Amino acid sequence: MNKSEIIDILKSNDEALFKKADEIRAEYKGDEVHLRGLIEFSNICKRNCFYCGLRGENSNVKRYRLLPDEIIKIAKNGADLGYKTVVLQSGEDDFYDVQKMTYIISEIKKLNLALTLSIGEKTYNEYKAYKEAGADRFLLRIETTDKNLYKKMHPKTSFENRVKCLYNLKELGYETGTGSLVGLPNQTIESLADDILFYKKLDADMIGIGPFIPHPDTPLSGEINKENFNLALRMMAITRIIMPDINIPATTAMETINKDGRKIALQSGANVVMPNITTQEYREKYEIYPGKICVNESPDICRKCIENKIKSIGRVVSSGFGFRK
Ligand code: SAH
Ligand code: SF4
Q: In which domain, by residue range, is 208 found?
């Protein structure tokens, strides 16, 4: 598919796209769904992304950070619940220096878990230290490839550095995940097509696509646009067709704006879900966007709930690590 073909499909309402993506998912990835347990370990962030509730300038957030041994304990609980991967996610919080991070990573790797990091932009040497400590994967969304829009959304940081970080992660041997926010103000369909071509050029191993959900305490406050669900789903399905063997999550943001969002996504190309395994008391404080699902549930309830959803659509929970290859 070239750019104009991608644009045409993004603009159309043809439901056949989802069926095609589902068939390709079945052929290349099978019926197994990989679960990644998400640990939201700090909501402290030095950045100010316009769309995000955790942005440093939002003084309405009750900030928290978990200590290294608390994080390791949550990962252990995840392993006990049957997770084969945990994802450590946070704001960009410099409290976790190389020494602390490599300690956390190496302890978690003793639990026979695959480990994904989602902690933002770091230097080449930091990424290298984390890889050497045992981290397997890294999630860093490009968010948008429209450079003007990127600049408006991200004061003081550059698109070029974001891209450089992604290529550094690839070079260091991480399974590298990226993706986009769909429905940002003034985002064009043309730029969304460019986003997909960017994933392909990077040869990303994982792609996470989510609808933008406005947060009231940010410069982009406003109404949810439900149309963004369908557009994000189309982005995801096209990505599956163009990159048949990668891992694609049914994102939490999709479920937030559509009560069956993850099931629908799993039937339109996705093969991964990332249930929250953070201790309950911190969940509502990690408010990237409002209305986040599962803030009142405990990790074991979330696990059972998602297993039931997966079974209800005739799929199975994987017992493997779920690497791309
Ligand atoms: N600080 C790290 C990881 C946490 S943010 C980072 O930025 O990479 C994780 C993701 O949340 C971001 O990549 C972004 O795509 C998403 N996000 C932020 N604000 C959002 C919003 N208002 N609606 C939907 N997704 C949002
Ligand atoms: Fe911080 Fe990530 Fe939110 Fe940006 S998207 S403000 S880096 S937590």
A: 3-317
